[in-house]
Structures are given as structure tokens and as C-alpha cells.
Amino acid sequence: MLDRMLHLEEPAYSESDAEWDAFVATHPHGGILQTTNWARLKSRFGWTSERIWVRQDGRLVAGAQVLFRAAALGMVRVGYIPHGPLVDWQDDEQVAVLLNQLDFAAYSHRAGLVKLEPLLWQSEMPAEEWRALCDRHGLVIAADTIQPPRTLVVDLRPDEEQILLNMKQKTRYNVRLAERKEVTVREGSAADISTFNGLMAITAERDRFGVHEPRYYEAAYQLFAPEQAALFIAEYAGTPLAAIMVFAHGPRAAYLYGASSDEERQRMPAYALQWAAMRWAKARGCTEYDLWGVPDADEETLEAEFMERSDGLWGVYRFKRGFGGELKRTVGAADRVYSGLLYRLYQWRRGRREGA
Question: What CA–CA distance (Å, rounded) separates 288 from 281?
Fold first, then answer.
């Protein structure tokens, strides 16, 4: 018999937080975005969080860390479960119990909807099965996603030489070229966050995409490093050329943030950084490295169009495809809707933002 529990997060790291993080680390669909420190990071930037879970025979078997905040001109309060819930999606009873707890949490936060984005691959649950599951449990499949649903995942289980051999020849050449061109990569510290933010400002202006405010990256590093995050900086003759921030939890490592200058790009510092991050992740016992986001298209389309297209994530696909990762897609997003009127307002607001 399943019993249910609603858990409010404690401000200090507690035994229940440790239990939760251990559960996330070992769950097949767990990831860094469901950890205690991720909720703490978001709490510094306007989000509140609540954790729901399900136990069976005293053991934690399912759960979700839900983030809440105001959206759409402050008129709609929304919930968001990044890379969650963590549940056995084949077990309808377990799913129903957890969604019931989600309803209580949404009601207590006066949320008009909660967006779910599980780290559940389509290879595990095809699209038609996901649609049927959503229909059974009152979830609305959503076209808009917060996290990119499609990504490339590098297998870190082989030895380093084999990982290099699994890369495309040009990428492997560029990794080695960076070393020959005297690019050095070092692991940074908190003192280097200002360097990272400076490179991020250059990247945002050059590539015209939105970035977090500088204190966001400072907070992320403060909360996760050195146990679960590392900052790598590529330099030439003492000058920073590029930097990335990578995260690890359980068997998964992920490249979340990256930035580069406009100088010495022919020295291939970005390739040296990714290789350093993969080696760091492998040394920590991670078995996969998530390159985090490519265009949401099938492999045939990606390979046919990546040389011509530069919009959206197409530019980064040209770079990421060479590292030998497996193209994977999650089932996408689904919404738990509690107010039809507020949901329409939310969709209108999201549409305006995407169209700007």
C-alpha cells in the first residue's frame, strides 16, 4: 500500500534533503535540476519550492521537487518541475498518487498550472504511449518547453582513447590542435567567476541570446562547487579565451553554461574545454556527459541542414555533433491545468515572449 507525504523544504540542509538527493542520484530519470541545491539556487531568483513524494514500505519510490513563481504580468502563479517528476511512468497507481500530491501542492500555492518536464527519453516511452498516459492522468501535452527536449549524450564508459576515437575526425583533430596551439585549460575558482561573466557578456552580444544576470552564475558556483560543479577556463598566454561551467550528480554530468571571447578562436579553445570537462566527469565516476540542447529535429533533418542553418540551436549543433554523442529526445512537456482562464493567459504571454 502506498502512503503519501508532502514535504516542505527546510532552509538548512537536513537529513530529508540528503535522502532526497541520494534518491535523485540513483533514480533512472534523476538529474541535477531535481537536487536540493537547484531549488536553493532558484529560491534566490524569485522561486519558491516544495517537495512531494511517495513512499512504499517506508522507502522513497517517487517524488518531485516543484518550483513556484508568479508569471504573466504577475496575474498567474505557475509551478514547474524541471526534469521531473521522478516516478515509474509504467505504474499508473504510483503516477496517480504522485499527481494527487501535486494537486495539493499547487492548491496551497494558488497555481493555475504546473509544467512537468521529465527526463524520460522517447526511447523508453514512445510518443504515442506518452500521449495515452497524459490522457489517462489529465495532463495536457505542451508544445512549449523550458529545457531543450533534444540533446546529445556522450558515453563516458570507454577509456579516454576510445572516447576520442568515438568523436568525429575533425573534432578529435581540433581537441589535439588546441594543445598544439598552446591552449591550456585550468579548473577555476570563485575568484574566476568575474572572468566567466565577462566572457558571457561578450558571447551574449555576439550571438544575440539571453543570459542570466552575473550573480546567477556566482550563486550557481557557490552552491554546487566543488562537489557537484566545476568551472573550466581555456587560456592562451595567460589570456582567457573561453570558459564553461559543468555539473555532475549521480551517473550524469551536464554542460550547462558556456562563453567565449572573440580572440584566438582559431586555437580551438572550446574543444579543449569540452574534453577537459569530459575527463573531469569520467574521473568522478559519471558514465554519461550531456551536451545539453540541440535543435528539436530528427537526425536525418539535422544532418541535412546543419551546414546551412544558423538560427536557434543550429550553430551549437554544428559544434556538438562532433563529440560522438547519441542523439536523444525526452517525451517533452506536459501541463497540469487548474484554471482554464489562467492557462490561456499564460499561453498568450508565452506566445508573445517567443514571438518577440
Answer: 8
Supply the pLDDT for residue 75: 65
Q: How confident is the model at residue 348 (pLDDT cuts 50, 70, 90)?
A: confident
Q: Is 131 exposed, middle or buried (0-12, 13-18, 19+ CB in 10 A)?
A: middle
d(CA 196, CA 231): 9
For residue 31, the number of C-alpha atoms closer than 13 Å in the C-beta half-sphere is 22
C-alpha to C-alpha distance for 356 and 340, rounded to whole angstroms: 24
Cell 545539453 belongs to: 292
Span(s) in the chain for CATH 3.40.630.30: 2-148+330-355, 150-329
Strands (DSSP E) along the chain, which ranges?
2-7, 48-56, 59-71, 76-82, 113-117, 140-142, 150-155, 183-187, 229-236, 239-249, 252-260, 288-290, 326-329, 333-337
Rounded mean pLDDT, 299-306: 96
CATH 2.60.40.1180 correct for 150-329: no
* End-to-end alpha carbon distance in the chain: 50
Cα 284 from chain centroid (whole Å): 19
Q: Which residue type is seen at 246?
A: V
